[in-house]
Amino acid sequence: MSRRVLVTGAGSGLGRAMADRFTAAGDRVLYTDLIPPDAPNSLALNVRDDDAWAAARAWCEERWGGLDILVNNAGVAAAGRIEAVPMEDWHWIIETNLLSTVRGCRTFVPLLKAQRSGHVVNVASLAGLLTPPAMGSYNVSKAGVVALSDTLRSELAPFGVRTTLVCPGFVRTNLATSVRSPDPALAELTTKLVTRARLSAEEVAAKVVDAVDHGRYLVLTERVGRLAWLAKRYAPALVHSRTVAAAERLHRRIEAQ
Ligand SMILES: NC(=O)c1ccc[n+]([C@@H]2O[C@H](COP(=O)([O-])OP(=O)(O)OC[C@H]3O[C@@H](n4cnc5c(N)ncnc54)[C@H](O)[C@@H]3O)[C@@H](O)[C@H]2O)c1
After folding, report:
1. Looking at residue 256, what is its pLDDT?
2. How far is the C-alpha of 57 from the C-alpha of 132, rounded, in Å?
3. What is the pLDDT of residues 167-221, one digit of tens each?
4. Which domains does the chain possess?
5. What is the maximum alpha-carbon separation in the chain?
6. Structural contact between residues 125 and 171, judged by C-beta atoms closer than 8 angstroms
7. What is the best residue among 38, 130, 171, 222 to mutate for testing ligand 1's pocket, by most ligand atoms within 8 Å of CB?
8. Separation of 62 CA from ligand 1 center, angstroms?
9. pLDDT at residue 212 in the model
């Protein structure tokens, strides 16, 4: 049956690929972004704007009579040492990545609960699980999305509403264009890791849609990420010593900049 899907940040990268994948599966998809994407159903939705969320809900109710799948995907990137990242950038990333996911859930969960069906898909990051050094603000924003999703997974289950948490490693998208960093060496490294990533947005989108189809909760997109996540849980001291070594390499890179 054709599902009704809303994707945020669907103008680029992973959001576009997920929206296209749902469309290819025969679903009806509302593509949303800061500028309405080029798609049959599209809407301007700045995820930081409460009124824009209310308008998106009105659109879904008026045109579709509800919504089946909400994909909170829109996001931005940041890197930098704790003492270097200004508070303004902390507010910017927490507001965009975390509080806007909260907004999306607050807007649509009442509707999904009333329907007694639906699915919330939140795009966090492997960074939210592994918390690598010199990425504090991004890690915290995504760890918040992990905590929110873990919470909703149980909170919404009694109402027949499912949750999927997506934690990709690096994916080839335009994410680097949004990166804010007071440390040029870290901005450069982040850009390299994203633009040269092995995984394409289409590969990740296929995994996400498959997880939704089968009601799976956690999407880890690659083997290295799955191993790192298991290692952090079962061999935390080992992972910590490796992470300290990575922090030392980063420190040398920043000193040399
Ligand atoms: N690319 C990666 O390596 C990677 C890894 C892990 C997680 N992610 C997450 O995947 C999600 C999608 O990012 P992407 O990699 O496709 O990057 P992208 O830059 O290609 O796409 C992000 C989209 O979000 C939109 N956006 C930004 N701020 C917005 C706002 N306030 N309101 C509405 N839309 C807004 C942008 O316009 C853009 O179209 C993000 O949440 C990102 O943190 C990406």
Report:
1. 87
2. 36
3. 999 999 999 999 999 999 999 999 999 999 999 999 999 999 999 999 999 999 9
4. 4-222 (3.40.50.720)
5. 57
6. no
7. 171
8. 28
9. 98
